[in-house]
Q: What sequence folds into this?
C-alpha cells in the first residue's frame, strides 16, 4: 500500500513534507495555493511553491477561473519547478473560498471542473482531484461526488469521505468507497485512516494508495510504522524536523503548528 501525505494549510511546507518522505510517505502534497494570488504575483503565495528538493510533491491549486489558471500555467515552465503532478482542490469548505466559487463549491460544477482539469492535463503530469462528498448533506445525498468521478478526466481522485459541513470530529463515511470504486476511476481514500487495520480494510477493496493527514502531524513517522512497524522516537523526529526547518526555512506559524501537535490529536480541519 502506498501512503500519501495530505495537503494541510499551515503545515505541509517543504520541511514537513521532507520529514514525512524521509519516514516513508510515498508522495506528498503542498497546501492549497490560490491561483488568483499567484497571477497577481503575491509574494507570500509564491513562497508556497517551495519545491526545494527531491521529495515527490504534487502542487495543489485552488482555482475557479480557467483563464486565470491558463495564464499561470503558461508561465509555469519559467519557475523551473519539478512537481510530481498537479491537484485541483474540490474540498475546501471555508466560507471565503466558497464565496469565490472555489473548493467544495465546485463539486456541482462538473463542466467548469473539466475545463480546469483540461488545462492542467496539458502538462502531461499526473493530475489529481481532491474532493469532498458534497458541499453539504443535501449534495452528498444527491451524490454529486459520483458526477465528478463519472465526468472528470483526472488520473486520481482523492475522496475525503465527508461533506463540506462536517467537522473533522465527525466520523468519515467509508461506506461510499465501493460505489466510487465501481465508477472504474482511480480512487484514493482519505479521512480517519491511521491504523494497519484501516489499511487492511482498503486493501480488501483493492485500493493501492491512501492519503493520511492529521495522523501524520501527530507522528510524521506513521508512514514507516504502517509499512514496516518501525517506530522512531518523537524526540528524534522533533530534532530532525527542526534541522529541516533550517535547511528549508519554515515560517514560524508552520513550526508552531507542527510542534504544537506532535504527539497530540489535531483538532482543526480546514478542508
Ligand atoms: C490543518 C489542516 C489544514 C488542511 N489544509 C488542506 C488544504 O490545504 N488542502 C486540502 O485539500 N485539504 C486540507 N486539509 C484536509 C486534509 O487534507 C484531509 O483531507 C483531512 O484532514 C482528512 O484527512 P485525515 O482524517 O487523515 O486528517 C487540511 C486539514 C487540516 C487538519
A:
Amino acid at each position: 500500500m502506498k501512503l500519501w501525505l495530505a495537503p494541510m494549510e499551515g503545515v505541509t511546507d517543504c520541511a514537513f513534507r521532507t520529514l514525512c518522505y524521509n519516514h516513508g510517505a510515498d508522495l506528498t502534497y503542498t497546501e492549497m495555493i490560490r491561483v488568483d494570488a499567484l497571477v497577481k504575483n503575491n509574494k507570500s503565495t509564491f513562497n508556497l511553491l517551495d519545491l526545494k528538493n527531491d521529495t515527490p510533491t504534487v502542487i495543489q491549486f485552488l482555482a475557479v477561473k480557467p483563464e486565470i489558471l491558463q495564464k499561470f500555467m503558461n508561465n509555469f515552465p519559467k519557475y523551473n519547478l519539478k512537481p510530481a503532478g498537479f491537484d485541483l482542490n474540490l474540498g475546501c469548505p471555508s466560507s471565503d473560498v466558497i464565496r469565490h466559487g472555489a473548493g467544495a463549491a465546485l463539486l456541482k460544477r462538473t463542466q467548469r471542473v473539466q475545463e480546469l482539469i483540461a488545462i492542467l492535463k496539458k502538462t502531461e503530469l499526473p493530475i489529481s482531484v481532491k474532493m469532498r462528498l458534497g458541499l453539504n448533506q443535501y449534495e452528498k445525498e444527491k451524490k454529486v461526488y459520483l458526477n465528478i468521478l463519472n465526468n472528470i478526466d483526472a488520473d486520481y481522485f482523492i475522496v475525503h469521505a465527508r461533506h463540506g459541513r462536517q467537522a473533522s470530529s465527525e466520523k468519515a463515511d467509508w461506506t461510499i468507497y465501493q460505489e466510487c470504486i465501481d465508477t472504474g476511476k482511480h480512487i484514493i481514500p482519505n479521512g480517519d485512516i491511521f491504523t494497519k487495520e484501516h489499511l487492511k480494510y482498503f486493501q480488501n477493496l483493492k485500493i493501492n494508495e491512501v492519503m493520511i493527514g492529521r495522523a501524520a502531524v501527530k507522528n510524521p513517522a506513521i508512514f514507516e510504522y504502517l509499512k514496516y512497524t518501525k517506530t522512531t522516537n518523537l524526540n528524534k523526529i522533533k530534532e530532525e524536523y527542526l534541522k529541516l526547518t533550517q535547511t528549508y526555512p519554515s515560517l514560524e506559524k508552520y513550526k508552531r503548528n507542527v510542534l504544537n501537535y506532535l504527539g497530540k490529536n489535531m483538532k482543526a480541519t480546514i478542508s
Notes: The chain has one domain: 2-261.
